[in-house]
Write a structure and sequence with these properties.
2 domains, 290 residues, Transcription Regulator spoIIAA, alpha/beta, 7-stranded mixed sheet, Chitobiase, domain 2
Length: 290
């Protein structure tokens, strides 16, 4: 009896391990996943076909990713009829689906992504990228599966505070890629604070000439224990802002810039003290602040 119980427990554990091995790890978790037998392998000879013009940038995104992380890219072309052994991208608006919805099918002879719209196709690509093996190879084998997914919320946002700490353009683009990977659609970009004004306004040059720098940073949480007395500067030019906005838009992300007024505006007042409510007085700093 005890032996039978041990065998039963062992079989249950094995079943759990097998079931776990068949799971896929996608962020965010799709609404519906069905695992299937078999695999599909992406090679240099795999072709990407898409039937609508607007999907071309999603095909390019896929290729750029493959080139960056796996050192090869695929031939992509716009075509109505597809041969076997390919990746096909298509969208078909359905009233029952939300913007950004998609179906992804991996079979033995193709990968098919059908989105509710262009954005849905792009999110299908994001899921496909997460299914790829992490090891660099010219043969990328993917488990056959069927995925149906749709956003639960219309507004999906991530925030970054560049007022207190300045992040370079390359990091901002990488951050936007993380937002896209998570299928979020909004980037809340905090660009001004007491600690620094980060966006170039050509009519008011002192906002960046003066307001983008501070003489030091407190050590520890406010009021802090000391000040490092190291000058800290940084801002984005208008051209850099335009480039980042386009970079986000290509990933179906809207940027919401946060410009602090009238509070949290010490950097602006330091640049233009005459605009202060107390123009003849220096910016007041707490006696507790080092």
């Amino acid at each position: 009896m005890i032996k039978m119980k041990k065998l039963f427990i062992l079989s249950m554990l094995l079943s759990c391990l097998i079931a776990k091995s068949q799971e896929i790890n996608v962020i965010p978790e799709p609404a519906k996943v069905e695992m299937k037998q078999g695999t599909f392998t992406i090679t240099k000879n795999t072709i990407v076909f898409y039937s609508q013009k607007g999907i071309g940038k999603s095909a390019s995104f896929l290729n750029d990713y493959l080139k960056k992380y796996y050192a090869f890219e695929l031939h992509a072309e716009k075509k109505e009829l597809y041969p076997e052994g390919k990746i096909s991208l298509h969208y078909d608006s359905l009233k029952s689906s939300a913007h950004g919805s998609y179906n992804l099918e991996v079979s033995n002879n193709e990968i098919k992504i059908i989105g509710h719209d262009e954005q849905g196709v792009f999110y299908g690509i994001q899921t496909l990228l997460q299914l790829l093996p992490t090891e660099k190879s010219n043969n990328l084998t993917i488990q056959q599966c069927s995925i149906v997914d749709s956003p639960r919320f219309a507004y999906r946002c991530l925030h970054l505070d560049c007022g207190r700490h300045f992040f370079p353009v390359d990091f901002i683009k990488q951050y936007i890629d993380f937002i896209a990977m998570s299928k979020m659609n909004t980037f809340h970009w905090h660009l001004t604070e007491d600690q620094g004004w980060r966006i170039e306004i050509k009519k008011y040059p002192r906002l960046t000439e003066v307001g983008s720098c501070r003489d030091g940073t407190i050590i520890g949480h406010h009021p802090g224990t000391a000040n490092d007395s190291m000058k800290y500067c940084g801002y984005y030019t208008q051209e850099q802002i335009k480039d980042i906005v386009k970079y986000a838009a290509d990933r179906y992300i809207t940027i919401i810039p946060e410009i602090e007024m009238p509070g949290h505006s010490s950097a602006a007042i330091a640049a233009y003290p005459e605009l202060s409510c107390f123009p003849n007085e220096p910016t007041k700093v707490s006696a507790q602040t080092p």
